[in-house]
Amino acid sequence: MKKVPLLICFFLIPNLWLIANNGNVSEESRFEYINLFIGRFHPLFVHLPIGLIVGIFFIEIYAHIKKIIISPPLIGLLTLLTLVSSIISIVMGYLLSTSGDYDLDSINNHMYTAYFFLLLNTLLLIFHTISFKKNLKIYRYLYIITLFLCVLFISITGHYGGVLTHGSSYLSEHAPWNYKPKKIITDINKAIVFEDIVLPIFEKKCISCHNADKIKGGLRIDDYDLLLKGGESGKVIIKGNPEKSELYHLATLPSSEKRAMPPDGKTPLTKEELQIIYWWIKNGAENQKIVQDLSPSREVIDLLSNYYTPSSSGTSLIEQIKVPELSEEALNQYYNTSILVLRISKNESKLDVQFKTPQSVNKAVISKLEAINKNIVYLHLSNSSVKDEDLKEIQKFENLNQLYLQNTAITNKSLSYIKELKYLEILNLYNTSITNEGINHLKDCKNLKKVFLWGSKADSSILATVKTTNPQMVVYFGIDSNQVNQSKK
Amino acid sequence: MNLKITDHLIQEQLKQITRRHFLQNLSTGIGGIAAASILGGCSTFFDKKGNPTQISNNPMEPSVSHFRAKAKKIIYMHMAGAPSQIELFDYKPELYKLNGKECPPSLLEGKKFAFINGKPNMLGPIASFNQYGNSGAWVSNHLPNFSRAVDEVCFIKSMHTNEFNHAPAQLFMHTGSPRMGRPAIGAWVTYGLGSENENLPGFIVLASGGKTPDAGKSIWGSGFLPSVYQGVQCRSEGDPVLYVSDPHNQDRTIKGDIINTINEINKEHLAEYNDPEINTRIAQYEMAYKMQISVPEVMDISKEPAYIHQMYGTQPGKSSFANNCLLARRLVEQGVRYVQLFHWGWDSHGADDFTSLTGGFVERCKEIDQAMTALLEDLKQRGLLEETLIVWGGEFGRTPIREIRPGANPKNIGRDHNPDAFTVWMAGAGVKAGYTHGETDEISFNVIKDKVHVHDFQATILHLLGMNHEQLTYFYQGRDFRLTDVHGQIVKQVLS
Lengths: 489, 496
Known about the structure:
Chain A has 20 helices and seven strands. Chain A is mainly alpha-helical. In chain A, strands 1-2-3-4-5-6-7 form a seven-stranded mixed β-sheet, with no helix packed on it. Chain A is elongated, with a radius of gyration of 35 Å. Chain A starts with a helix and ends with a helix. Chain B folds into three domains: 1-43, no CATH class; 55-240 and 304-494, Alkaline Phosphatase, subunit A; 245-298. Chain B is 31% helix and 16% strand. In chain B, strands 3, 6, 7, 8, 9, 10, 13, 14 and 17 form a nine-stranded mixed β-sheet that branches. In chain B, helix 11 (321-333) packs parallel to helix 12 (360-382). The longest helix of chain B has 23 residues, at 276-298.
């Protein structure tokens, strides 16, 4: 019991430090500088009490299950270490909070739960010591309850700390219930410059320190108005003048420079990202304007579209096609047959099908594909002996994306079988007997992008109809022999 | 020498056991499997992951690509001798003004030239330029037809290479190494992806007469890959493949029987020695037999309609680049994986009229301009450009400095080799059409923006064909080899 006053002293030390420090905060002193240096060890040191208390918790559970007794002095030592390390962490945490980079509400949550944890921790040590010395059951129970509470409160404190460093949405951002399909830029000219192009760059590189919860340098970048308002040292964006804009200037400094942003150790902005921001500020750092409004040069368009290539490639129709899973056995049955069945890439269940002897393709051959017909996305029937009646089953190949029928004897009738194929993008009908009427069958294939009709009986008079039924379809009629003759004369 | 026939056969068989086989067997006996891996290259087949596989009967069996391929086939047009980028695509207005001025010594510092020495002069572009198409690409007056097609094309103006002489530079471009012994890119592609047409070789080479490229046939060789993957050169004049037609009065079925019997014996041999070269022999015999029918048919361009001939500028029976362009289209139409065209005579040093930028160079441009444009348009209209990649380029570029050959007629104007800057273009499946990548300085001497090294270019080609250049490897002499050695960055900007 002699130690109790000592423990109380421990509990008081941080408060004394805080009181002592309060008088100095207003001065821009060397003292404050050192405070911050010590304070920044907080995120590192704070894991020590967490680890210790959770460790004690699991040791007790283990002892309980195995019905063994862990040496009480050992537990006592661990509890004392937890207490000492918590006190140090709290002092450091307080020093860090004096930097003023953080949102006050969030800091208070973190701080008060931490204090409460400290109190519980002290009680834990007291209860443990008494139950051990006096061997009283009641203290043992109190000890156990307090231990539970300790673990609970260290978790809450830890969570609030996480909110401070990573922002409040960090944990739930990628939770399944928060899933938002990413906005996909289909036409770069129509993209909103700030919201679609510039803001995502900031989100990736800046917002983790300049948001509603963590406001480094008093600057928030997550909101257009607040960004324009600037931070403690004034405006960071001067419309039309990127060179004078602090935001651009700091982002271009080499990372060895003290003021460089993002600070050393975080991923700097890429050359392309800087060029985009430069272009945005140069053109007035507008909020609502779309790319077209700023009449971008060719280089800018290239820059922007290059920057967005990764997301645009994900938009292709073939990505959206969902096919059933496919086993290796299902594929093996085609091994060493006249049908060549290949996955369109490793680990994908979408298939590309060709025929090794195209001159002997008929209904029977095509019916062999029945087991995998929903997996086939590319079907090569070019130069084959396929006829209209062989293609009757093709409507069941509902996930076809590219269909090659060039140099075959098919007629319009075949097109009536494929009109249901909603994922069809490329249809090659070069050198077939398709006529204008046949093309009418395609009006429901809304995704059809390219149709090749050179050498068929269709002609450009259908273009007017196609324009209304399938506006995005491009029809290739080939090279006109008369045109070639004329150009040579 | 009175050996009985069986003794004789045993003797013959023993002769077949080479030192390699002996060592190989020895290694399994003594050193075990570990030692056998040292002799790996000649022991077993390895799949694309490097795991040993059972020997498939068909080394050309098509296989799944690493990731989704944009292009399934490729036509690669190589202008042997290295065409001048300054007279074709890389428009440099400043250089006109510098024409005839003495070359500042700072430009020559640290540079190695094949021929230029002393105090050379600058040489302005011997061409006029205009912008064409929606993309506004610059094309010189030497390629009037091609200027129509620029919106289909992606130019890379920032190519550079390590080699400044033709043979090593061509080897570097095609095999990724300036020395002989590595497989050509076409061999890597057919090794990686196989061939979809069983009746035609997967890798076909067509040269448009003149002389063969300086690096010789090793730029379409298979190197250490099984030789079934080497390029098959077809002649565009006369018989496409020599001795492919049946001898007079001999029935084709007899030949079929002969080949079947030979292959039966070869298969026994294969089971015994497990040497991939025996497999190659079997595959090539079968291929040769099938090619007797397929090759004369596909190589006969005389049945093409007249307007197609007019479009390409072809003359059936002649050996020309135009004929080869039309053949290339016919070959990819039949599912040939890799078609390699070589044109020749681009080494414009100005030593004589043939190599002068005012003489032979203009002729070369005429030879390719109409034909390659026709090929692009033809493929596009047929829908073949959807899965075919077209590549055009030389092995390096040419200097903005004039080269004077001792004793040459001063009216012949030429440039020396420049490994530090040259232009290539790509078109077709997966390529960003109407785009220009990279930039050279104002005299097209060095690249100043978005450098693309030969290995980067090769990595990009493999990427377009669905292969990861770092995973396409072959185990040989104790280690994995790949086309791009330990280099290569995919040029993402040129991908659509």
